[in-house]
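Re: export button greyed out
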Amino acid sequence: MEKNMQKACVIGWPIGHSRSPLIHNHWIAEHGLNARYDKRPVRPEELEDFLLGLAGMGLRGCNVTIPHKQRALQIVAQTNPSGLSPMAARLQAANTIWLENGKLCAGNTDVYGFMENFRQSCPHWRARDQKVTIIGAGGAARAIVAGFADAGVERITLANRTVRKAEQIAAQMDGPIHPQGLESLPMVLPETDVLVNATSLGMTGQPPLDVDMTALPAHAIVADIVYAPLRTQLLRQAEKRGLNVVEGLGMLLHQAVPGFEKWFGIRPSVTPQLRHLVEEDIRQSC
Ligand code: ATR
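Workaround output, generated via the alternate export path:
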């Protein structure tokens, strides 16, 4: 059994918090595979050796999380320049690594994960004429900007505490992106159809993201990338105001789908059972 076992893992530093093993091992059991997915702490200085040694360790690939997403992309680009997915190359960050003919390949499934969750949560949403406001300008914000820009929205306001970082994203990425400081939010919110929190604010142990929900139009959608707690204060306030909300957990579940398919050859589904399993785990830790 162990000899023919298909293996994959998630790497990060630290890695203790990761729910990826719960998700992938659920799918492994569901499909009756002789496979295992675990988490491995990898220090930044060990990253290159780890990725170059994947095949030797019997691994089909791995997910990559903080702080390795950008460096992992550079390592794959150096060893196999044609092994980057267009999205990973565009975002200059990788979260999924696999082997093709023994060569390292890198993808970025965060955009897919966010947009798939968003579309499933709001099936009637159409990109045409939509004005989107994204708060934050880190890696997650970059992926969400790419998703809405590709969907064809009319305007993306990128509001960040450090305006320079929002300006960098606007300069590097295609799309109708307007960088702003957080102080511009009162002016922007009445014109916002979709508001997204792409910062870590609202996460357990962090201060909440304080946004005046009454400034948003009554048809607005509010999405959060934070999933612990499952319902952030931002989402609870939006619901109180009667707005549609999109939880962050769905992004985590959907971004895992393409990696599982690359490593194990089966495209898994995000089912209510899987969602329940991960929700319970998050509830216990919050
Ligand atoms: P990730 O890659 O997960 O998106 P990140 O690159 O650390 O993480 O980005 C975190 C985001 O949260 C940034 O936009 C950060 O704002 P700055 O660019 O000004 O640092 C934002 N953020 C974190 N703490 C914040 C706070 N207390 N107030 C406002 N924004 C905050």
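The chain is about 40% helix and 20% strand. The button fix ships in the next patch.
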